[in-house]
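request received
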Amino acid sequence: MDQFAGRTAVITGAGSGIGRGLALRAASEGMRCVLADVEEAALADTVAQAAVVGAEVVGVPVDVRDAESVEALADLAYDRFGGVHLLCNNAGVFQAGVSWQRTVADWSWVMGVNFWGVLHGVKAFVPRMLEQEQQGETQLHIVNTSSLAGMTTSAYSGPYYVSKFACASLTEVLAHDLRAQGSAIGVSCLVPGAVDTRIADSTRNRPDEPPGEAQAPDHWFVADALRDMTTTVGIPPEEAAAIVFDGVRSGQFWICTSDRYEEILRPRFDAVLRHELPPSVQF
Ligand SMILES: NC(=O)c1ccc[n+]([C@@H]2O[C@H](COP(=O)([O-])OP(=O)(O)OC[C@H]3O[C@@H](n4cnc5c(N)ncnc54)[C@H](O)[C@@H]3O)[C@@H](O)[C@H]2O)c1
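response:
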């Protein structure tokens, strides 16, 4: 996809961080924007900022864990704008902790947003995007936000890593399935490095717990380190968004915002080829 103006973007997790960066970038490219988030006040802020840029923009409260909620988002986008050209399944949450100690509720929450949320987006939008393609539309692209944590592992963040591997794997499978069926819809897997967002405070949007209270110490130990890292070395969301748009424009499958991509990935794949456990990654 290399033409954005006048086309429609749908972005989940648009109320904050990378999603907000993507929304404002889409608006500045002249796209019509359908912005979704579970945090309604934050979403309203992004909608207002995108409107200032001059975009035709609509905000939709959506919980991506809920298939019907995402289906309603697709209905609204197609009813309102007649088509969707750039779909960013970006909403995500961070859940750290030791794998056997985290509760089923912890695992369900992070998998619900980071894996099921992306799958719901794929199921709601891809059939409609395929119809657009059959009608001659060529400017169509899907970006799923995984993470470098979807390509590497370390201790104390099992739920997040597992959910991001699932997202990355789903995105590869999606691209293969589309190609196997003769579709040229573009697919990218966004694997950000550190970006200065509110990801370390993800529990603010966790519905089944008072924010921050019920989480175990092993979660906060890592979340605090993540907050330190994202706020000190994280790039601004608008810079991440610019990298994403460049990656979409040039048809990259893996879009990475970190200049440590090769340094982080090469030891992993070398270890895999040696039949060894890959090294634990220090971001
Ligand atoms: N910030 C980083 O360093 C970093 C690194 C790698 C990957 N990521 C990924 O980037 C994506 C965006 O995260 P961010 O860093 O901008 O964090 P963020 O917390 O600033 O933004 C995430 C947004 O997702 C929304 N959200 C959470 N649960 C939702 C739900 N159930 N339904 C709809 N929206 C929901 C939040 O309200 C928030 O607006 C996530 O998938 C995250 O895993 C971030």
